[in-house]
Amino acid sequence: MSIEALRAMLPAYARDIAANLAVLAEETVLSDQAKWGCFVACAHAVGEPSSSRAIEAAAKAAGLSPEAFDGAKTASAIMAMNNVYFRALHLMAAPEYRDLPSRLRMNRLSRPSVSAVDYELWCLAVSAINGCGACLDSHEAELRERGVSTLEIQTSLRIAAVVNAVGRVLAAEFSANPQKWGV
């Protein structure tokens, strides 16, 4: 399935989402690897099957390497864990938990299978979807330290926002009318 086919699945009320999806698929602010890895990481974070399949097919057609697929999925998996833990610490009033080591294995954060900048962009985008302010601040600071521009960071956040919206709309449509989807 292509991005165009995915756009066609969106109902009329999500026309702006479909338009944004098309614009971001053609975006040139990020390298193709950074862009399509961000799409894949975000689709995995959202977890809606139709959008995940379409985005993975588009990323494969765009030439995303197996290493980048692995890195994007790893970013999504690690952030699924870290975003819950660090968001909880950020929200809790008791400060003593912040001083304890997390004791969560996350070796791939320090040894991703792709460039550190791409991996950080993907972690940032997934952290936006998962709503972890502490992780957003941490990954944004790391990206700034590595010389990534505000526009590149914003682009990863725009991809996160649109992929999240696509997944949410399709999940709601499926839930409301499974017969329409052949179930």
Q: What does the model show?
A:
- The protein is mainly alpha-helical and 183 residues long.
- The chain has one domain: AhpD-like.
- Helices cover 69% and strands 0% of the residues.
- α3 packs antiparallel against α4 (49-61), α3 packs parallel to α8 (150-176) and α6 (116-130) runs antiparallel to α7 (133-145).
- The chain is globular, with a radius of gyration of 17 Å.
- It starts with a helix and ends in a 7-residue tail after the last helix.
- The relative contact order is 0.17.
How do the helices and strands line up, and which of them pair or pack?
Layout: H1 3-9, H2 15-25, H3 32-46, H4 49-61, H5 66-91, H6 116-130, H7 133-145, H8 150-176
Helix pairs in contact: 1-2, 2-8, 3-4, 3-5, 3-6, 3-8, 4-8, 5-6, 6-7, 6-8
